[in-house]
Design goal:
Layout lengths: L1 H10 L6 E4 L5 H10 L6 E5 L6 H5 L5 E3 L8 H8 L4 E4 L4 H4 L5 E2 L4 H12 L3 H18 L2 H15 L1
Helix pairs in contact: 1-6, 4-7
Length: 160
C-alpha cells in the first residue's frame, strides 16, 4: 500500500523517494510491485539495517511511515519518534498510544495515507522539526524505562 501511494504521489508530481528498511517474507513481492509500477529509481528496499546504523538511517529520512495491518506497540515507531521524526502510522494495536490521531490512518486507506504524506511534504521545515521534537519529547517522557518501571511498581504495590 505504501509503495502504491508513493507511486501515485510521484505521478502527481511530488518529488519524493521511499526507503524501506527491514526484510521479511514480503521482500520479493515488494520488488515485483516496484518493478510493475516502474519505481526502481524512487523506491529502495534497503534490507536489514544493522543496529549500529539505525540512528544514521533514521536521520537520512524526513518522515517515517508504519504501514502495518496488525501491530501491538512497534519499537520502530518509538525509535523514529526518539530520532525526532514526524511519524504517520496505521491505526492498529497500541500505535494510537504513541501517535496523535491526526497522523493515523486506517489500514488500506490509500487516500488518507496519501493525504498525510502530502501534508508533511508541503509542511514548512521548521514545523516538521517541531513535530519531530515533540515526538522525541513524548518518547522520553512516556516510553522510557524509568517511567515504565515506576508504572509497573505501582501496579505491583496495588496487588499486595
Amino acid at each position: 500500500e505504501l509503495i502504491i501511494a508513493v507511486g501515485s504521489l510521484i505521478k502527481q508530481g511530488l518529488k519524493i523517494k521511499l526507503k524501506i528498511g527491514g526484510e521479511g517474507p514480503l521482500s520479493n513481492r515488494l520488488e515485483r510491485i516496484i518493478d510493475k509500477l516502474n519505481l526502481k529509481n524512487k523506491v529502495y528496499l534497503e534490507g536489514h539495517i544493522p543496529y549500529e546504523h539505525v540512528n544514521e538511517w533514521y536521520h537520512s529520512i524526513d518522515l517515517f511511515v508504519l504501514n502495518s495491518r496488525t501491530e501491538e506497540m512497534p519499537t520502530v515507531i518509538l525509535e523514529a519518534m526518539a530520532s525526532g521524526l514526524p511519524v504517520v502510522a496505521t491505526n492498529v494495536g497500541g500505535v494510537p498510544e504513541a501517535i496523535d490521531n491526526e497522523w493515523l490512518y486506517e489500514p488500506r486507506d490509500l487516500k488518507r495515507l496519501e493525504e498525510l504524506i502530502v501534508k508533511v511534504y508541503n509542511m514548512d521545515i521548521d514545523l516538521r522539526k517541531r513535530i519531530g521534537q515533540r515526538n522525541r519529547l513524548k518518547v522520553l517522557k512516556h516510553f522510557n524505562i524509568r517511567t515504565n518501571a515506576k508504572k509497573i511498581l505501582k501496579i505491583i504495590d496495588t496487588l499486595n
